[in-house]
Design a protein that fits this description.
Elements lengths: L3 E10 L2 E11 L4 E5 L6 H9 L6 E6 L2 E2 L10 E4 L11 H11 L4 H14 L15 H13 L5 E5 L7 H18 L2 E6 L2 H7 L2 E6 L2 E6 L1 H6 L4 H6 L4 E11 L2 E6 L3 E6 L9 E6 L5 E3 L8 E13 L3 E9 L2 E8 L14 E7 L4 E3 L2
Parallel strand pairs: 3-8, 3-9, 6-7, 7-8
Antiparallel strand pairs: 1-2, 1-4, 4-5, 9-10, 11-12, 11-14, 12-13, 14-20, 15-19, 16-17, 16-19, 17-18
Helix pairs in contact: 2-3, 2-4, 3-4
């Protein structure tokens, strides 16, 4: 049995349905992420797990017990917010100890537990400081330590890193992964940041319009999106319109609009004449002045329409048909060379038949 089970949960605010019949399960010890754009329902779902909102329908089971209408303070669940919510008049040590004092723990046990948590988040030398004397990343670690101090069954994290700068956010991501492994507590994490979700999670539920579009391991979501929304939302992706023209066992031919015939992997239920989109990640596309034609590859000539220097890679936008653009990436592997091609350069691109996924929805 999963640690957390969400069964057919619905939440409405007047005529607006924020969460629409969502069902999912989270295993013990898992780092599980709810990912989606603003307004998709992920934070509302998290608030129902915390007990700050009650579902209009469905069940929220923790260890098999229905928590749907249990008060927040009576749930073995804690939440870490973006704002940290630390007490400014308390030291770091007192902030962390606060939940244990409210639960009437013995002073000696409180002291031991707090020192363990300070060590876990690498803040042992900061116990006597006040929140305003610490950096944003340090305050975030204090908030996490306070949430973990009484070892809840479930830790909820609502966009906890979004207020941090890029470098510090990356450092905190590594710390969160390490901490979650060390304490072994189940994390349910909410974010709109695709890169953050891919880096942190064992599994991700991608949400849109109050529903779960796809739930899978990060590598599966990225390489095999279920529909166009997931392909578009999760990282950079070429989405090329096409029609199935023939089926050949585990592969099929599609006619890409404005480009011509290409081969790709077949999909369940595929039918000749069916329209859809070929989802193709830029890093799967080869690019050069000239490319040798290979039987297993689609091959096109085009012109560089634009490029975007990203440091470790450069993203090139190649026009292969009138108004048809394909993005591709090249690693900046030669010292001092920022890009290999300029706008309007004639180039060739190619990709393997199994590099993309054909989407019918």
């Amino acid at each position: 049995m999963a640690l957390l089970e969400i069964k057919n949960v619905v939440k409405r605010f007047g005529d607006y349905t924020a969460v629409n019949n969502v069902s999912l399960a989270v295993e013990a010890g898992e780092f599980f992420t709810l990912l989606g754009p603003s307004g998709c329902g992920k934070t509302t779902l998290l608030r129902m797990l915390a007990g700050f909102e009650q579902p209009d329908a469905g069940q929220i089971l923790l260890d098999g017990q229905d928590m749907s209408h249990v008060q927040p303070e009576k749930r073995p669940v804690h939440t870490v917010f973006q704002s940290y919510a630390l007490f400014p008049h308390m030291t770091v040590r007192d902030n962390i100890a606060f939940p244990l004092k409210m639960a009437n723990w013995e002073k000696s046990k409180i002291a031991t537990q707090v020192e363990e948590l300070l060590a876990d988040v690498r803040l042992s030398q900061f116990g006597d400081r006040y929140p305003h004397e610490m950096s944003g990343g340090q305050r975030q670690r204090v908030a996490i330590a306070r949430a973990l101090v009484d070892r809840p069954r479930l830790l909820l994290l609502d966009e906890p890193l979004s207020a941090l700068d890029a470098k510090l956010r990356e450092e905190m991501q590594l710390e969160l992964i390490s901490l979650q492994k060390e304490v072994g507590i189940t994390f349910v994490y909410v974010t709109h940041d695709q890169g953050e979700a891919l880096a942190l999670s064992h599994r991700i539920a991608v949400m849109s319009n109050g529903q779960v579009e796809q739930m899978d391991a990060p590598e599966t979501l990225y390489s095999k999106p279920k529909n166009r929304f997931v392909a578009d939302f999760l990282g950079q992706c070429n989405v090329l319109e096409g029609t199935i023209t023939s089926l050949n066992g585990d592969s099929m031919q599609i006619n890409l609009k404005g480009c011509g015939e290409v081969r790709c992997l077949s999909v369940p239920g595929a039918q000749v004449g069916q329209t859809g989109w070929l989802a193709l990640r830029p890093e799967k596309v080869r690019l050069d002045k000239q490319l040798q034609a290979v039987a297993e590859e689609a091959h096109f000539r085009g012109r560089v329409h634009d490029c975007l220097y990203l440091g470790d890679v450069t993203l090139y936008v190649v026009e292969i048909g009138e108004g048809i653009f394909v993005e591709t990436m090249l690693a900046n592997s030669i010292p001092g060379v920022a890009k290999f091609f300029d706008d309007n350069d004639c180039v060739e691109i190619a990709w393997r038949f199994d590099a993309g996924s054909f989407l019918t929805e």
